[in-house]
């Protein structure tokens, strides 16, 4: 069924909160890379382009998930316009960086397109939040760490393992908000498992002397808080926004040590 979302028809879909959440998610996606980068890219053209692209993609993902939950669909003209704008961003990003980075963005765009075309199947799968978390927690941050004439070492990317696990926790929870087949509990368990992995990774970095025991316990408490805070909200967008804020806090506490 085709359906064009009226963004002001309900608070959960109002344009203001959606854009704020999309921007906050974009910042959360890039914070680890900003802390780990070897140069200053905060106001560089590629970084600005990436922010705009992520905001657009995050809005699209929210609408896709909400549409899936409601058994409705974004109309083809609206999504087609989104694809055109995304293509412009990707081409400009390639022009400012490298073809390889642009191809990775293209893959991310294809993942979203599949979610649009095969919503009933793809958005119910384990693979969907897994891929979103891999990009949000790892690949987008690698764009900030890797740059021309930079000799990359595997150890430079190891800290991103924590953000990938953290984003898996968030994305599995988010997936559970919109499922239709009764598997919300299963994805909740996936989220807890990902959080345990994030805690183990954090402890491993503590053991290497990357930060103090106090920092480890702060990270641990905020990861637990990621689940506790959900009990204070009923609306999906509010829950997602609260999780994003908690994610930003956890990332700051963890990555400011590097």
UniProtKB/TrEMBL annotation:
<feature type="transmembrane region" description="Helical">
    <location>
        <begin position="126"/>
        <end position="146"/>
    </location>
</feature>
<keyword id="KW-0472">Membrane</keyword>
<feature type="transmembrane region" description="Helical">
    <location>
        <begin position="76"/>
        <end position="94"/>
    </location>
</feature>
<feature type="transmembrane region" description="Helical">
    <location>
        <begin position="47"/>
        <end position="64"/>
    </location>
</feature>
<protein>
    <submittedName>
        <fullName>Uncharacterized protein</fullName>
    </submittedName>
</protein>
<feature type="transmembrane region" description="Helical">
    <location>
        <begin position="100"/>
        <end position="117"/>
    </location>
</feature>
<feature type="transmembrane region" description="Helical">
    <location>
        <begin position="12"/>
        <end position="35"/>
    </location>
</feature>
<feature type="transmembrane region" description="Helical">
    <location>
        <begin position="213"/>
        <end position="233"/>
    </location>
</feature>
<feature type="transmembrane region" description="Helical">
    <location>
        <begin position="187"/>
        <end position="207"/>
    </location>
</feature>
<keyword id="KW-0812">Transmembrane</keyword>
<keyword id="KW-1133">Transmembrane helix</keyword>
<feature type="transmembrane region" description="Helical">
    <location>
        <begin position="240"/>
        <end position="257"/>
    </location>
</feature>
<feature type="transmembrane region" description="Helical">
    <location>
        <begin position="158"/>
        <end position="180"/>
    </location>
</feature>
């Amino acid at each position: 069924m085709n359906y064009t979302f009226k963004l002001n028809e309900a608070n959960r879909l109002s344009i203001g909160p959606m854009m704020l959440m999309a921007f906050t998610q974009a910042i959360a996606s890039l914070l680890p890379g900003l802390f780990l980068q070897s140069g200053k890219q905060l106001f560089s053209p590629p970084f600005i382009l990436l922010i705009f692209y992520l905001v657009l993609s995050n809005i699209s993902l929210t609408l896709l998930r909400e549409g899936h939950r409601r058994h409705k669909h974004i109309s083809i003209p609206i999504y087609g316009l989104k694809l055109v704008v995304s293509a412009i961003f990707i081409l400009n990003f390639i022009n400012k960086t490298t073809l390889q980075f642009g191809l990775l963005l293209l893959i991310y765009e294809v993942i979203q397109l599949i979610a649009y075309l095969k919503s009933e199947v793809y958005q119910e799968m384990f693979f969907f939040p897994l891929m979103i978390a891999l990009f949000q927690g790892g690949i987008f941050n690698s764009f900030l760490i890797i740059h021309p004439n930079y000799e990359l070492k595997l150890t430079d990317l190891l800290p991103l393992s924590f953000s990938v696990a953290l984003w898996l926790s968030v994305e599995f929870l988010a997936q559970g908000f919109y499922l239709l087949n009764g598997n919300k509990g299963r994805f909740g368990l996936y989220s807890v498992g990902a959080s345990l992995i994030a805690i183990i990774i954090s402890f491993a970095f503590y053991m290497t002397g990357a930060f103090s025991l106090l920092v480890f316990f702060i990270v641990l408490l905020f990861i637990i808080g990621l689940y506790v805070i959900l009990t204070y909200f009923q609306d999906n967008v509010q829950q997602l926004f609260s999780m994003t804020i908690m994610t930003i806090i956890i990332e700051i506490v963890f990555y400011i040590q590097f």
